[in-house]
């Protein structure tokens, strides 16, 4: 039994924080898990910047409403879901992901939750489980699934390396250079073919 585990941002949809950085004019918020491997540190830093600028959940959700999936992403996902089970495993938050899931045809997503005050201020975040991507892949394996995993950032490497097959998709030159053993793809067609080949193995 195979199951494909995909990252969300950078693989199927644009990076939410980069889009919000552009919309808000706050350049520092362009920093993502491609730049900072420690997600806890990155999120605490982001929340500090939002507080400093008096921005909350509503402003981020307004930006998310304008985001569409990456060109070809929905078609790729639809085609893949006809072939096998697919789960999106993301370090994003339910409050961010919901409108994007609608645009992707409501695939299954496992993600985290923001802690939000009545005022709309983001005060913290609750991770579903420690090392959520790797832990989820290991849990799926423990109930009889062979996992195939793909992502673009440092926080995807655990689930990629723990899987039967693992791929990088539209990642950075640095990650490609640091992990030359991981096949890296730039187009959905070649990415789809690689996953289907792995399913057949």
Which keywords apply here?
2 domains; globular; alpha/beta; thrh gene product, domain 2
What's the gist of this structure?
The protein has nine helices and seven strands.
Plain-language structure description:
- By secondary structure, the protein is an alpha/beta fold.
- 44% of the residues lie in helices and 20% in strands.
- The chain contains 9 helices and 7 strands.
- It has a 7-stranded mixed beta sheet, sandwiched between helices.
- Helix 8 links the parallel strand 6 (165-169) and strand 7.
- Helix 1 (16-24) crosses helix 3 and helix 3 (57-64) runs parallel beside helix 5 (94-103).
- The longest helix is centred in the N-terminal third of the chain and has 15 residues, at 39-53.
- The protein starts with a strand and ends with a helix.
Report on the biggest sheet: 7 strands, mixed
Terminal CA distance = 11 Å
Corresponding CATH superfamily of the largest domain? HAD superfamily/HAD-like
Looking at the structure, the CATH topology of the largest domain is Rossmann fold
* SSE pattern, N- to C-terminal: EHHHHEHEEHEHEHEH
* Coarse morphology: globular
Question: Mean pLDDT, nearest integer?
Answer: 95
Low-confidence stretches: none
Total beta-strand segments: 7
Individual helix count: 9
Our estimate of the beta-strand percent is 15-25%
CATH architecture of the largest domain: 3-Layer(aba) Sandwich
